Structures are given as structure tokens and as C-alpha cells.
Task: inverse folding
């Protein structure tokens, strides 16, 4: 009985599918796409195909840091409190030793990068100083 019911339902579904009724729901042949040639394309004068920008970071915390510290810059992070961040260590852009609380770095960033987190580590085992900076095309100063 079950088999007969299944055969009946399958037959009914095949009949309901229909066939080619001659009508077409696709685009008509009269709607041809417009062809654009490469020489017709225009780009603004300031457009560049280089997705990389140079960024400058200057830190001057002399007198408020131990003599030897280490700076790391990260592109991926999440904020877990007011000015407290968890950085993705795999997203490190650059790091460098810092002496007497002063350092100037130049590094490359993706043009789409809008924020970075800078960490300053001291060698005494304390938690790092962290600060988030927005990327706006100007030099970063801490």
C-alpha cells in the first residue's frame, strides 16, 4: 500500500512539473548589454592602484617609562573595556625596542586599515600600556 501511494505521489509531482510552454522568463534578445571599452574608462587624478600607505608613529614618553621597553603595533584587536584591548598577536604589523621612552617608526599599512593598537611592554613583567589610534593619513603621536 505504501509503495502504491509513493508511486502515485511521484507521478503526480512529475505531471505538475509541466513542460516547455513556449514562454521564456529569461532576458529577451533585444536587451543586449552595453559594451564599454577600456579607453572609455576614466579615473580621478588622485586615484592610485597601490593599496598600501606609509604611516609614521612617534612616541615620546621619556621620564615616565623604564629605560628599556618594547613597542608592538597591531591591526586586529577587540575592546574589552575603556582603553583596554585584546590584540590578535598574529596581526602584528611592526615591533621595535625603545630606549628612554622615545621612538619613531615608519611602517606600511593597508589603505583600508582604519585603526591600530600600540602596546608598550616593559621588561619588568608588568602589563603593557595600550592605546588605540585612528588612521587618518596624519602622523601618529603618543
Result:
Amino acid at each position: 500500500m505504501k509503495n502504491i501511494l509513493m508511486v502515485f505521489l511521484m507521478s503526480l509531482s512529475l505531471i505538475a512539473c509541466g513542460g516547455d510552454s513556449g514562454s521564456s522568463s529569461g532576458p529577451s534578445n533585444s536587451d543586449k548589454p552595453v559594451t564599454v571599452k577600456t579607453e572609455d574608462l576614466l579615473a580621478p587624478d588622485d586615484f592610485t592602484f597601490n593599496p598600501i600607505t606609509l604611516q609614521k608613529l612617534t612616541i615620546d614618553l621619556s621620564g615616565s617609562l623604564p629605560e628599556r621597553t618594547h613597542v608592538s603595533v597591531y591591526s586586529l584587536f577587540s575592546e574589552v573595556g575603556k582603553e583596554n584591548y585584546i590584540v590578535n598577536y598574529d596581526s602584528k604589523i611592526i615591533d621595535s625596542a625603545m630606549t628612554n621612552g622615545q621612538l619613531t617608526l615608519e611602517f606600511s599599512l593597508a589603505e583600508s586599515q582604519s585603526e591600530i593598537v600600540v602596546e608598550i611592554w616593559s621588561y619588568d613583567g608588568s602589563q603593557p600600556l595600550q592605546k588605540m589610534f585612528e588612521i587618518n593619513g596624519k602622523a601618529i603621536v603618543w
Q: What stands out?
A: The helical segments are 2-17. The two ends are 82 Å apart (CA to CA).
